[in-house]
Amino acid sequence: MKQLLLLRHGEAGFSAGLDLDRKLTLKGKEKLIRLGESLPKSEFSVDLMYCSSASRTQETAAIIKKYISVKEEVITRIIYNADLNTLLELIENTDELVETCLLVGHNPTISLLLSHISNSNYIGMQPGMLARIELEVPHWRMIGHGTGILREILQ
Description:
alpha/beta, Rossmann fold, six-stranded mixed beta sheet, 27% helix
């Protein structure tokens, strides 16, 4: 059964520069470390991780990778300003050999994706929040509205 993990980046500080360059706060890093320490390694092995190219998402991914195995990763700017359809298309094009996929992204789109796939009321993902969705379809290309079951939210 395919599994999709959605992780909103940790708490980020403000920057005088570009939003893309915002870094995680100390509080954001500490929360991600606590999240990582709480993850049972057997359930959170990732075949492929998609990560936004923003600094805060890459920092988030680096922290989480200390606690779970990530076999392959794709860092892409597509996730940074993505709408729901863009994220769905990204996931739909995932190689069929991938069983567990992790997407590290931004609000509000990551929360919309969670609600859309799980056909649940809107869940506003807080910084550093991880959602685990089991897909009820055998192929990534079939992902869409109501094709997954929200199994847990960790923070």
